[in-house]
Amino acid sequence: MAKILMKGNEAIAEAAIRAGCDCFFGYPITPQNEVPEYMAKHMPKSGGVFVQAESEVAAINMVYGAAGAGFRVMTSTSSPGMALKQEGISYLVGAELPSVIVNISRGGPGLGSIQPSQSDYFQVTRGGGNGDYRIVVFAPSSIQEAVDLTIKAFDLADYYRNPVILLGDGMIGQMMEPVEFNLSKKTNLPKKEWATTGTNGKRKPNIINSLALASEDLERHNYKLKKKYDEMEEKEVMHETYKMDDAEIVLVAYGTTSRITKNAIDSLRESGIKAGLIRPITLWPFPNKAFNEIPKTTKSILVVEMSMGQMIDDVKIANEGRLPIHFHGRPGGMIPSPEEIAEKAKEIVGGAK
Amino acid sequence: MSLLFEPTKGMTDKSMHYCPGCTHGIIHRLVGEVLVELGVLGKTIGVAPVGCAVLAYDYFNCDMHEAAHGRAPAVATGIKRMLPDNVVFTYQGDGDLASIGAAEIIHAAHRGENFTTIFVNNAIYGMTGGQMAPTTLIGQKATTSPYGRDKATTGMPLKVSEMLATIDGAAFVERVTVHNVAGIRKTKKAIKKAFQVQLDGKGFGIVEILSTCPTGWGQTPVESLSWLENNMIPYYPLGNFRTPEEAK
Amino acid sequence: MATEKVIMAGFGGQGIMSMGQLLTYAGMIQDKQVSWLPSYGPEMRGGTANCSVIVSDNLVGSPIITDDATASVVMNLPSLLKFEQQVIAGGNLIVNSSLIEIKAKREDINVYYVPANQIAKEIGNDKVANMVMLGAYIELTKIVSQDSIVEAMKKVFGPSKQHLVELNKEALKRGAKKVQ
Known about the structure:
The complex is a heterotrimer.
Chain A: E1 4-7, H1 8-18, E2 23-26, H2 34-42, E3 49-52, H3 56-68, E4 73-77, H4 79-94, E5 99-105, H5 121-127, E6 136-138, H6 143-160, E7 163-169, H7 170-174, E8 176-179, E9 207-208, H8 215-235, E10 239-242, E11 249-252, H9 255-270, E12 275-280, E13 282-284, H10 288-292, E14 300-305, H11 311-319, E15 325-329, H12 338-352
Parallel strand pairs in A: 2-3, 2-4, 4-5, 5-7, 6-7, 11-12, 11-14, 14-15
Antiparallel strand pairs in A: 1-8, 6-13, 10-12
Chain B: H1 24-37, E1 44-49, E2 63-67, H2 72-82, E3 87-93, H3 94-100, H4 102-110, E4 116-121, H5 151-154, H6 160-164, E5 170-177, H7 181-199, E6 204-210, H8 214-217, H9 221-235, E7 239-242, H10 244-247
Parallel strand pairs in B: 1-2, 1-3, 3-4, 4-6, 5-6
Antiparallel strand pairs in B: 5-7
Chain C: E1 3-11, H1 16-29, E2 33-38, E3 48-56, E4 69-74, H2 77-83, E5 87-96, E6 110-114, H3 116-122, H4 129-141, H5 146-157, H6 165-179
Parallel strand pairs in C: 1-4, 4-5, 5-6
Antiparallel strand pairs in C: 1-3, 2-3
Helix pairs in contact in C: 1-5, 3-4, 4-6, 5-6
């Protein structure tokens, strides 16, 4: 199939349609507006449903309704809107409803800015909603990867009966790159026999619910959910390594930042410093294993984020105290340059010698 | 032997958790009966959010969604848009619909979503223990209006039916009561009409049902029936506010 | 192994974004690695617009261009003031001299003055000034061919605007001629 040039937001929307997304519920917020706009234009053509909700809160609850009725459903938003969706996300998990939630994040806190940022790491991996829950979070670093992971997200959501989050940032949403749409092989997904489609008098009522007033019941439900999280941790971890074999310093970055970090690594290597990269593709489950496999040559770790340091917590957990961990971050919508990252790495390597 | 009473197939056998004298049970039964009489029970999906009716999914004998506080109209939108040939209803209380879910109900009506809302107005938050609702009457005592609701600081009680009747997308709006037998009969008729409006594809329908909360009001069941009649009906006049003809 | 990192800038309505997209598309047609990154935000609604395009034989790392532009194509004065600085020594700066009356300050870069609006008017439509600039740019860098740009136009414009292809083609040629 020939590649086409597409904006990240539009490519994500098109990928969703090709993955069999039946309906989309959203609300305008920059920098993700091309997603609902694309859906409004193209969903009716593919027999799907588009609704512009009155708020992010309403949108995620429309997702809850449509997912409960058994349909493939997506919503998209940006950081402040994601905060509003957290209530509904917790309910989706509790009621075990598959859905795909796209967050094209921007600077915060508060209304913040509309420029790219990675300060939603906590919000998507720790859950802003109430209760014990986990969600697979994909963090693509190119438009092609955003497309592939969007398609995969629908399958994973259905398989686990759990929401899946696709986390981009303003840059992933706005930039254009060539993409092609490769549909995954039909996985054997179970029929949605739990969906509320009407009993037709032939079966007992299906109930979509996250309430369990008896503590014993709710504990049992949480154990059941935990089993799914365990399976996700076992099967769904994705990461990329780059020039790791002989690395004396390992940089850790995801999404947009990982691209900039790769440039920094190339220039570091040109100046004789052996740098490598671990790029988490799933932010949860986090690629802990990659940190066990760091070569003996490595003396230190440098985490690079467009935030004041959020993923660094997971790196510390994965590192288990073995190597010193340094941080370079730019918050508020500022994007680090390859030069400043390389500079920081040189400082660390120099200091270690 | 002649059959004098039979439970409706629209409901399950589960015994209800409602307080003695609460009229939720009557309203549940009316909805169940209507769904059976219209022959749509098997294709009905109900949505009951947080509030006293949060456990309604145990009582209605059809597919059900429990929903977050106030969000039932959004959930119902998601269901009905995807299953337009099914019958969808929300069952909401006044704290839920008129306070935290005000945006959702207004916009569902505004878009003319083709589902039915059963709105139980008992002028108080029941489930959480008797706090003031937007519908609590002036002077009425609640745990968060211990000196009686004061207009100066909490505004006047919200008239939901009147408000929604101003919205073009609301095809059917009627206020009824279940404090006496005549009222119950009229309520059933209104519920049936509202579902018929949905079956005819005419848009959003809501039945506001004045209901008692003896526990929350601190009254006996009998006292609460007359309190409803003497205090709620004068402020919340009964009647139809909108029909499909007007909706055009 | 060539890598072109070009910043294209001007005011809203000059066709800055589509000029960048055509270059990106043409690069893709020639099997190169490409990325297109727009500025977005309040400046989209009027004001200055710019986009960064990378066309390379290697994988594109960061799509951002920070002080390492191999070229800047500037179509109004604020863009010249901002993006002249971002060009690397020995890089190219193409200035729309129809709208920018001052000269560039740098002496370590190659500066070309193209009266894009004037040329566009000569061939019949002020709106193709962007294609005059693009024609000059690809003539200087040879990063993609004119033919690829024309092929990209056919894909990007859609069937309703095919009649504009000839005019745009002419604009590309005239832009190229100006810097030959």
